[in-house]
Design brief:
single chain, alpha+beta, Jelly Rolls, Spore Coat Polysaccharide Biosynthesis Protein SpsA, Chain A, 7-stranded antiparallel beta sheet, 7-stranded mixed beta sheet, 21 helices, 22% helix
């Protein structure tokens, strides 16, 4: 039987247990270090990172927590209680067919083939001159994500261009150095988002870390743990694979711009390190591609999250849809009204007009019903519509329109407001009235008491007595708190007041400057302003539209079209319907007044454009649109049209069409003022190196064709040797009814380009619309151009809304371009008759060519119709790189 030292073991049992514990600890340490070398760390049951902060739960693009298939089931079940949609987002907004159903997006599921030379850099897309600090503002950009302003590469995930108002989209692949769990963190000024796919497919990208959602959040460079959302959950990565990532960053016009992504192994105490060139690679090589080639650009949940939201209530009244219906056939309108000459007195044919003064002879039309072109959502910052001084409105508001109801024993509110306004202006100007309105000097006292009062001003309640005049009441300044004293008795201290006027003024000024330094302990209590919650007031109906005239107002760029009085519009429509039914035997019934436009001529009458929705006796709904003239009785004799010809003999009309026997204005049909419904409209646009805008313009025109079904228009692009895309190929590929491509050499010349486009139009009886590239057209633009262009009579210069930085057609913030006449519709025959564009004076510079053209249009005897058009926008765009202008950096590179 072998000998076993049982007694010794019992005596040394504690030492043996300690040795066993140390051995186990050493073995566990060895195993852990071995796993770390292999890139596989032991999992911690609690998700705590550096400095004891709990790691945040982040969501993927669908608002659901991303759980890698390699994670264990118990780990994912622990975090399921923390599931949330992204900050500030409604699940129904992300899932318009109900929460839980994913969006139908055009995502890129197959990554392109990868090459070894892609290693060491990633793709960078820049969207310049776009305001806002949130990534959501970047997604609102019209060209995001396919058409950036610049395509380039970077060699590490830390970028700081030292610029403002831009957005970045950085994408490519991450190559881990070893297998294991990795944490990511993003830091930026302003907001940013870091998306990572569990594979190389962009379609699987999930939001793992972000800095803010509202645009007000930011971090310092390298500050990776300021927000809990910055740090991701641990992600199991393998060194043998590559993982698609996407980094979105939005920078506003403040702060030190930067964005960087750090990573670390999931171990306590380790710090984040910026991901360098050794672990990144390109998604694809874009160096040889033109800007209109976008098939290679990845589309992931990062660039489409929230892209298809629920239909929201329009934020501005002008976004509400316009009604539309088919028109009445032209033959049914013949002989409804008696023909008459149309020669308005405001036409300045052959009248000498000074250079650039033609816009002073442009008059505005009145519109009914309200077309909501007034930019009411912009009047918080611009109240020019109310014709009040901004300083006055800031100080006193609109209280002058309110008559406060007087209560028993209360001072008249209107007199009080006027008195305070007078005191405020007198104090600001420092005029002679200021000395007379100063508070009266206190009653004479002993010298000791006077000195004590000067050292320690005592605050006492003001005394009120009806026997004293209002001038003796204590006055409190708006800018400083004056000493409150008792009222002055009649005749008291008059001589002393006269002697102390000058000295008192100087002393008061010095006291105001040194009041903070020399103020001692104040006795008494401050009196709080009493609030009368029961105060009521009386107010009448105020119509500020009545204060406007038909002069072309160049000062206020938020006011809409002039509003026509309802009674006048209804009266004209009633007269026309009476004549129409007298001619056609009551065949039509009026359903709705769609639009009435009035151009006033106080000497001869007013021209009206009537657009009515009618119900035909057979049940068909029709649309009528015709010009009529409300002729004044004194304008009958001696009138000729613009060519000096008498009106043609009037055909036989019904008795209802005769003039009013009581001398009232009568309706008639103005000769040669009928617009053509089927006339061809040619959009002429000169371009150069604007690939993303050319693609957008062609897409908008194709959508206009599909939406309206109107094929009577053509697009003419005049290309000045664009290098960033093949304009002709893009034009051929666009689904347009008609198009024409013209190529010119040399620098960009807007006047020459427009003239070349008009010269390419063969039909002189068609309309040419001189256009810009960065325009968003409403569906009504074609009919709007046709209705307001009449050969030999009318030209059309619609007012476009110029969108501000960061604004889009869905959320329009901007102003009406009341000074610009660059968007101009006119018949080609009239354009040729006035001499066309001034190509000699305006060559490679522009600005003023539209006013010069306007001068000659008016001198030729044409009227220029000027209306604000709903949903007609000029996109905000960057001017960097336009028209072939080189940057200073590029110029230095080309210098020998």
């Amino acid at each position: 039987m072998p000998w076993f030292p049982v007694k010794k073991i019992r005596k040394q049992i504690k030492l043996l247990l300690l040795l066993l514990l140390l051995t186990c600890a050493a073995w566990l340490t060895y195993v852990h270090l071995s796993l770390v070398r292999q890139g596989r760390a032991l999992r911690q049951r609690l998700g705590y990172g550096r400095d004891g902060e709990k790691l945040s739960g982040v969501t993927d693009g669908r608002g659901i927590r991303a759980a890698l298939s390699t994670q264990r089931a118990e780990d994912s079940s622990e975090s399921r209680e923390e599931e949330r949609v992204p900050e500030g987002r409604d699940p129904d907004a992300l899932f318009p067919w109900g929460a839980g159903r994913p969006l139908s997006l055009n995502l890129t599921r197959q990554a392109p083939s990868w090459r070894e030379e892609y290693q060491g850099q990633v793709n960078l897309h820049v969207f310049e001159d776009w305001c806002g600090g949130a990534v959501g503002h970047l997604r609102r950009n019209l060209h995001f994500p396919l058409f950036p302003h610049t395509r380039t590469t970077v060699k590490k995930l830390a970028v700081s261009p030292k610029w403002k108002n831009y957005g970045l989209r950085i994408f490519g692949f991450i190559h881990p150095a070893r297998d294991g769990d990795v944490q990511f963190s993003v830091a930026s000024d302003d907001n940013s988002e870091f998306w990572l796919s569990p594979t190389e497919s962009p379609a699987g990208a999930q939001l793992v870390a972000f800095v803010g959602k509202t645009g007000s959040e930011w971090t310092a460079p390298g500050e990776f743990t300021k927000f809990s959302s910055q740090v991701s959950k641990p992600r199991r990565l393998m060194a043998s694979r590559r993982y698609y990532f996407e980094l979105l960053h939005k920078q506003d016009d403040r702060g030190s711009d930067h964005v960087e992504v750090g990573w670390r192994a999931f171990l306590p105490g380790l710090k984040f390190e910026v991901i360098g060139s050794a672990h990144i690679s390109l998604y694809t090589d874009e160096s040889a591609l033109k800007m209109d080639h976008v098939a290679h650009v990845p589309q992931s949940p990062a660039s489409h999250v929230g892209g298809r939201l629920l239909q929201e209530e329009p934020r501005a009244d002008m976004l509400r849809p316009d009604p539309a219906a088919p028109r009445v056939e032209p033959w049914s309108l013949e002989n409804v009204l008696e023909p008459c000459t149309y020669a308005p007195t405001y036409v300045v044919k052959d009248f000498p007009i000074a250079r650039y003064q033609g816009l002073q002879f442009v008059y505005l039309s009145f519109v009914y019903p309200n077309d909501h072109t007034r930019l009411t959502h912009m009047e918080t910052d611009n109240k020019c519509f109310y014709r009040e001084s901004p300083l006055y409105l800031e100080r006193f508001g609109f209280y002058k329109y309110m008559k406060m109801d007087r209560e028993e024993g209360e001072e008249d509110e209107e007199e009080e407001v006027q008195r305070r306004a007078f005191l405020f202006l007198s104090h600001r100007t420092g005029g002679p009235q200021a000395a007379k309105l100063r508070p009266p000097a206190p009653a004479p006292t002993t010298q000791g008491s006077r000195e004590g009062q000067a050292r320690e001003p005592e605050l006492t309640a003001p005394t009120t007595d009806s026997n004293y005049s209002s001038e003796a009441q204590p006055v409190t300044s708006f800018l400083s708190l004056s000493q409150v004293s008792r009222p002055q008795l009649p005749g008291e201290n008059e001589e002393e007041e006269e002697g102390d006027d000058e000295e008192g003024a100087q002393g008061e000024e010095a006291a105001l400057e040194d009041s903070e330094e020399k103020a001692g302990p104040v006795r008494g209590r401050w009196r709080e302003d009493a609030i009368n919650w029961q105060r009521t007031f009386s107010v009448g109906s105020v119509d500020f539209e009545m204060l406007r005239s038909d002069w072309n107002d160049l000062r206020c760029n938020v006011s809409g079209n002039l509003q026509l009085q309802e009674a006048e519009a209804v009266d004209v429509v009633a007269q026309y319907m009476e004549r129409l039914n007298a001619r056609h035997g009551g065949r039509y019934a009026l359903l709705r007044i769609v639009n009435v436009e009035k151009r006033r001529d106080s000497a001869r009458g007013s021209r009206f454009l009537l657009e009515l929705e009618l119900q035909e006796r057979g049940g068909r709904r029709l649309r009528l649109s015709e010009y009529v003239f409300l002729r004044l009785p004194r304008a009958h004799a001696g009138d000729t049209d613009g060519d000096g010809e008498r009106p043609e003999p009037a055909p036989a009309v019904s008795p209802a069409a005769s003039a009013h026997p009581d001398g009232r204005p009568e309706l008639c049909r103005p000769l040669r003022l009928a617009w053509r419904q089927d006339v061809m409209v040619h959009f002429i646009v000169p371009v150069k190196n604007q690939a993303r805008w050319v693609v957008q313009f062609l897409a908008d025109m194709a959508a206009l064709h599909v939406r309206t079904g109107d094929s009577r228009f053509s697009v003419i692009l005049v290309d000045f040797e664009s290098e960033d895309m093949d304009v002709e190929r893009a034009l051929r590929a666009a689904p347009l009814p008609r198009y024409q491509y013209l190529r010119r050499t040399g620098n960009f010349e807007r006047s020459a380009g427009l003239q070349a486009g008009v010269a390419a139009v063969e039909d002189a009886s068609s309309i040419v619309f001189l256009c810009d590239l960065h325009i968003h057209f409403p569906p009504s633009i074609l009919d709007g151009i046709r209705k307001h262009c009449v050969e030999g009579k009318l030209a059309f210069a619609p007012v476009v809304m110029r969108l501000g930085c960061g604004s889009s057609p869905g959320d329009p913030h901007g102003y009406w371009e009341v000074n610009g006449f660059g968007l101009f519709g006119i018949y080609k025959s009239d354009f040729d008759r006035i001499g066309g564009m001034n190509t000699e004076e305006f060559r490679d510079q522009w600005g003023g060519e539209d006013w010069e053209l306007l001068d000659r249009v008016l001198q030729a005897g044409l009227e220029v119709e000027r209306l604000r058009v709903r949903n007609f926008y000029h996109h905000f765009h960057s001017k960097r790189g336009m028209w072939g202008v080189r940057s200073r950096k590029a110029a230095r590179k080309e210098a020998p």
